[in-house]
Amino acid sequence: MAGLHKSEFANPVVNWIDTRLPIFTMMQKEYGVFPTPKNFNYFWNFGALAMINLVIMIATGIFLAMNYTPHVSMAFDSVERIMRDVNYGWLLRYVHANGASMFFIVTYIHIFRGLYYGSYKAPRELLWMIGVVILLVMMATAFMGYVLPWGQMSYWGATVITNLFSAIPVVGESVVTWLWGGFSVDNPTLNRFFSLHFLLPFVLVGVVFLHVAALHITGSNNPLGIDVKSPQDTLPFHPYYTMKDSVGICVYLLVFAALVFFAPNLFMAAENYIPANPLVTPSEIVPEWYFLPFYAILRSVPSKLGGVLLMFGAIAVLFVLPWLDTSPVRSSKFRPIYRNFFWVLLIAVVVLGLVGAHRPEGVWVVLGRLATFYYFFHFLILLPVLGKLERPLPLPESISRPVIAGGGGPLPGGAAAKPMEKI
Amino acid sequence: MANSMPATEAGHHGGDVTKRDFLKLVAGAGAAVGVGAIAWPLIDSMNPSADVLALSSTTVDLAPIQAGQAITVVWRGKPVFVRRRTPDEIKTAQSVAQNTLADPALDSARVKPGKEEWLVVVGICTHLGCVPIGNKPTEARGDFGGWFCPCHGSQYDVSGRVRHGPAPANLAVPPYAFDGDTKIKIG
Q1: B 1-60 near A (Cβ less than 8 A)
Q2: What own/partner pairs with CB < 8 Å and gap ≥ 24 does A419-422 have?
Q3: Residue B47 to residue A87, Cβ atoms within 8 A
Q4: pTM
Q5: Which of A229, A289, A365, B42 is 20 to 30 A away from residue B54, measured at CA?
């Protein structure tokens, strides 16, 4: 297999490198001419947006780490120093903190896109499962990052989340002591969280690479959920989807910038501007918004171990989703019954989010239990059964067919015929 | 778009520069400016922060320093030597022939007029940044009575001028000003 690559690049320097290490050929193949279904809607922007977001988080995080001190007596002050004294430190921190929220917004939309259009179904099961791993690593990273400023919410968030593991029978207490490196959340905990918070984003980069690699083997799903049948169904990734992604990136950056410059503390708890106090728990302790649905599931179960199991189960169920959904039809467009239940699931998750933000009393307890029940009912019972009962609408013959049948206006295929021609 | 098409066609006939070339240039330049604007805060965050800049001046009380002695004070995290020279040392420093110096400088240019007694220099060897010895009379001061760098053997005279290599330049004189007769403010 060894041997030089026969490069087709005209530039002699590029050619020289490409002959020895064909990265240019690879980029051209995977991001230049890569055949991509031509019927993407804007929901297909969110993977690229998440990738950009990861880059932003790593870039700002590296520079924040240069000014941060992972020690219980200095962490809070070092963050305040970043806000007040470090050049553009306020910007770095607000971009990083709000970037976490943006990351989850983008990723959750990406996930629900996958749920609506059946992107998890064969042959993309592994692609989907790698995605769930990404979600888990993101959650761990976000949680540990939130501990670093060492405010009240940081401290008590760390205490509550690490105590989840005390629900494990027999070894629970030992596991928690091991996680803490002591008998409470303290300096050793902060040190290791900082180390892991620095490491995990690079693990994410690796897993994201696998996610993209798997995507480029199976090819992208599309809003119709049917397979690409011929080259007429596709467009080269560049310039068609580099441009479409660029439009999305501009809108995404506008929202991001609006958040950072006009409402930087929208998602932040005021309580976290109080230095950590191991002797007083804040009266309203709430996790970051992106954990609220899971937090609500945890609290909906009147049993310590049960709540923890169900909370982790909410993610675990996503791992096996490709085998729970028995319908061979991917896109909800052609699944008249599932389509309605998709929205019910979305509402249930939003309700769980609201429940998580309120004290568990009165109507919130009932709502939380109903929504938790529906969440698991949806994945464990509805999807397997619905696949057998539902009669899907007739699928189009090809991706091109409904475009042509739809008529009106010039065909996108016409533009694809001569992509290299200058206007 | 429809309206702009004929103009584009005309432009195409006029020469090799097309509307697309223009759009590519504008988009590329816009992206470059954007990336630069994003990169700058990251880069600038590595510059000295406000609290570091706030430490940029140091006040020194000269009263306790005896003639012939020197003290070390910290300014911007660096050692600064403040030396009270004896009349003999001042005379020696002033009478050195300029052509014997590696980095010629008059002694009068290295002290404040009327305050020849006081020499203030940054105590960092101009070779590779070690701190020379010689503040205490008991320490080696080299052949020229000033300072001796233990790292690579550079020697400085009582005016802080390099007299023996490998250091290429004299000890730097920091910006400072007298505040009365017995106080200086460095920085």
Answers
A1: 8, 12, 18-20, 40-42, 44-47, 49-52
A2: A419/A236, A419/A239, A422/B12, A422/B18, A422/B20
A3: yes
A4: 0.85
A5: B42
